[in-house]
Amino acid sequence: MAYKYKDNYREQGARKRLVELLRKKGIEDEKVLAAIGKVPRHFFFDETFYNQAYKDIAFPIGEGQTISQPYTVAYQTQLLHINKGDKVLEIGTGSGYQTCILMELGAQVYTIERQEKLYERTIQVLPYMGYKPHFFLGDGSKGISEQAPYNKILVTAGAPFVPDILLQQLKIGGLLVIPVGNEETQQMVTVLKVGEHDYEKVVLDTFRFVPLVGDKAW
Ligand code: SAM
């Protein structure tokens, strides 16, 4: 497939302004801000909508799904405290933008998407951009037990509850970040696995995600 993406001064400038906006909104992790400053978000947009790519908004990517708002991506990524080499399961690849941010931080990413058309797009676009995560097509609400355990698990869609099966796939010391709530709004939840059956849960701010649809979800 021939891609014509270019990262021009106009987009680079808009990206710098986005980073400053996220800093003002409270994102403090400089590594996360640097990753946002590096990944060309407009590559995930049709050229007609390039002017929307560096606004702090979610945007439709087809199949009724969205590329997450940059603030949300930065917020979730900051909570994950990614260390170089961390094995991260991302549930809800979507556009693949969040995947690139995680890879910029040095994570080895296992990413799963249930919508075939989105999966097909990301397996083309991300390698073209130089990102080579492990891609999976299927229901990520059950995790991917064959590849477990993980240092971190990130859910990028709104869940009705924290699926036990995801907690089982964390290493001890591992962390799950998942928005949990109803179809309207969800609260960001972090769960740290402190022992084989011991967890520390923290409930944070309110967000609005598309639903996590699957066997252990809606
Ligand atoms: N971080 C992504 C981005 O910026 O593009 C977020 C994409 S969107 C907010 C959430 C994605 O989760 C959608 O693409 C949706 O199809 C996917 N999804 C929902 N339920 C899923 C499931 N059970 N397994 C895998 N993906 C799922």
Describe this structure in words.
This protein has helices spanning 9-24, 30-38, 70-80, 97-104, 116-129, 164-168; strands spanning 59-62, 65-67, 87-91, 108-113, 134-137, 150-155, 170-181, 186-195, 198-207. It is α/β, with parallel strands linked by helices and 218 residues long. The protein has a domain at 56-207: Rossmann fold. The longest helix is centred in the first third of the chain and has 16 residues, at 9-24. Residues 65-68, 73, 91-92, 94-95, 97-98, 112-115, 118, 139-141, 156-157, 209-210, 212-214, 217 line the site of S-adenosylmethionine. Pfam families: PCMT. Its main location: cytoplasm.
How is this structure best summarized?
By secondary structure, the protein is α/β, with parallel strands linked by helices. It has helices at residues 9-24, 30-38, 70-80, 97-104, 116-129, 164-168; strands at residues 59-62, 65-67, 87-91, 108-113, 134-137, 150-155, 170-181, 186-195, 198-207. It has six helices and nine strands, in the order H-H-E-E-H-E-H-E-H-E-E-H-E-E-E.
Main attributes of the structure:
218 residues, seven-stranded mixed beta sheet, 6 helices, Rossmann fold, alpha/beta
Fold blueprint:
Elements: H1 9-24, H2 30-38, E1 59-62, E2 65-67, H3 70-80, E3 87-91, H4 97-104, E4 108-113, H5 116-129, E5 134-137, E6 150-155, H6 164-168, E7 170-181, E8 186-195, E9 198-207
Parallel strand pairs: 3-4, 3-6, 4-5, 6-7
Antiparallel strand pairs: 1-2, 7-8, 8-9
Helix pairs in contact: 1-2, 2-4
Bound molecules: S-adenosylmethionine.
